[in-house]
């Protein structure tokens, strides 16, 4: 028999993404904790340390990854909860989804802007 | 032994909202809750409405909330509950009267997963054979009696009724992993959608409540794995 396969849902991808992003976050966040709180301490971390760290593309990409993964993981998790408790096709679900996407986009852009426009020499010159 | 029974009653033609009714019932410790309900209906108040058929835990028609847990009234003994028993209709389905709920939302979910054998290959002379190992794959999920205990114990089903629910997923599992069936891709596509397998949040209420002891959450994880593996 020829099987008719209905158009794919993508909820399975969202589910998989929660797991993949969680594993990546676990590694990245452990690394972050190690650098910021074990090797160094928040008592000794100063502007110079942050400036020096952000001077290398490696750490900018590292921080950007945490930012994007944590935001998308958290907001996608909230989207799941919203879909559990709002009516399909209703106004509340739409409003929540618009809000989640807006928060996600704004904070991703804002974070990326800070990470990539940060110029330590601009402060040194003053 | 006298027990005190509280029943959440509701007759939509008369009552504005559900109310608790109290009954004192003489019982034997080895009576089932179903016997207690029979006693009330036959001796104290004939207007009490409930469903039951087999009275032996196999037809699945007397599922209700007993002392806060979904169970079959014919499968729980008075001695295991103590002297106070509360009985309520299943949650998440509309009440028709007293302990009788409208099962249609439940069965419409069930029908969505195509709960029948699909195989257009010419039938062999005798039956379609299956090895004991192939049969073992679906041993657990064939035991379902469609009582709705699991689906109406699931907080995700209560949330907005969108979720197919554990019972429909158990039925899907029973056919998807049946070696004689040919419609697994079609069913997996249905389960991959928003209201399907991935709406399960692994709460385990279904597994805890199932009167047939089916490992429902495990079956649902099997389905999730099959969908992810077939698409990556
Ligand atoms: C190392 C870090 C993290 C790990 C290992 C992790 C792991 C997970 C996993 C495996 C899930 C899926 C649970 C399920 O579907 O049953 C999940 C859900 C979720 N996560 Fe994370 N997570 C991490 C960080 C975060 C962060 C930083 C946030 C917030 C910004 C967050 C917010 C959420 C939310 C809102 C959900 C949805 C909860 C639900 O559906 O009930 N997580 N997390
Ligand atoms: S899986 Fe168990 S609880 Fe759910 S309908 Fe079937 S027998 Fe009832
Ligand atoms: S009356 Fe049939 S299962 Fe209880």
Shape of chain B: elongated
Radius of gyration of chain B: 20 Å
Instruction: Give the N-to-C terminal Cα separation of chain B.
Output: 61 Å
* Total strands of chain A: 0
Hetero compounds: protoporphyrin IX containing FE, iron/sulfur cluster, FE2/S2 (inorganic) cluster
The number of domains of chain A: 1
Q: Segments of chain A where pLDDT lies below 50 for 5+ residues?
A: 1-7
**Structural class by sheet pairing and helices of chain B:** alpha+beta
Q: Give, in order, the helices and strands of chain A.
A: HHHHH
Q: Give the terminus-to-terminus CA distance of chain A.
A: 76 Å
State the strand order across the main sheet of chain B. Answer: 2-1-5-3-4
Helix content of chain A: over 70%
Q: Which fold name is given in CATH as the topology of the largest domain in chain B?
A: Fumarate Reductase Iron-sulfur Protein, Chain B, domain 2
The level 1 CATH classification of the largest domain in chain B is: Mainly Alpha
Q: In terms of quaternary structure, what is this?
A: heterodimer
Number of strands of chain B: 7
Number of helices of chain B: 8
């Amino acid at each position: 028999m020829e099987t008719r396969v209905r158009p794919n849902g993508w909820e399975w991808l969202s589910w998989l993404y929660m797991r993949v992003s969680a594993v990546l976050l676990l590694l990245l966040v452990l690394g972050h904790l190690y650098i910021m709180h074990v090797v160094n301490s928040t008592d000794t971390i100063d502007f110079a340390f942050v400036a020096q760290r952000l001077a290398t593309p490696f750490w900018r990409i590292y921080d950007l990854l945490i930012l994007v993964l944590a935001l998308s993981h958290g907001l996608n998790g909230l989207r799941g909860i919203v879909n559990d408790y709002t009516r399909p096709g209703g106004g509340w679900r739409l409003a929540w989804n618009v809000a989640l996407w807006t928060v996600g986009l704004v904070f991703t852009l804002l974070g990326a802007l800070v990470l990539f426009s940060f110029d330590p020499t601009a402060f040194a010159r003053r | 032994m006298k027990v005190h029974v509280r029943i959440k009653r509701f007759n939509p033609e008369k009552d504005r909202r559900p109310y608790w009714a109290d009954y004192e019932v003489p019982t034997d410790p080895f009576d089932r809750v179903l016997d207690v309900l029979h006693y009330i209906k036959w001796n104290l108040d004939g207007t009490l409405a409930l469903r039951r058929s087999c009275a032996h835990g196999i037809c699945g028609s007397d599922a209700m909330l007993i002392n806060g847990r979904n169970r079959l009234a014919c499968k729980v003994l008075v001695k295991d509950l103590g002297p106070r028993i509360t009985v309520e209709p299943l949650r998440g389905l509309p009440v028709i009267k007293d302990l009788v709920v409208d099962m249609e939302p439940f069965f419409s979910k069930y029908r969505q997963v195509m709960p029948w054998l699909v195989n257009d290959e010419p039938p062999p002379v005798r039956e379609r054979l299956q090895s004991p190992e192939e049969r073992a794959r679906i041993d657990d999920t064939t035991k379902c009696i469609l009582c709705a205990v699991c689906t109406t114990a699931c907080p995700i089903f209560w949330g907005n009724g969108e979720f197919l629910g554990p019972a429909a997923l158990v039925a899907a599992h029973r056919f998807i992993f049946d070696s004689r069936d040919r419609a697994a891709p079609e069913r997996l596509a249905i389960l991959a959608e928003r209201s399907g397998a991935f709406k399960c949040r692994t709460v385990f209420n279904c597994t805890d409540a199932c009167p047939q002891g089916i490992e429902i959450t495990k079956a649902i994880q099997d389905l999730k794995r099959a969908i992810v593996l077939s698409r990556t």
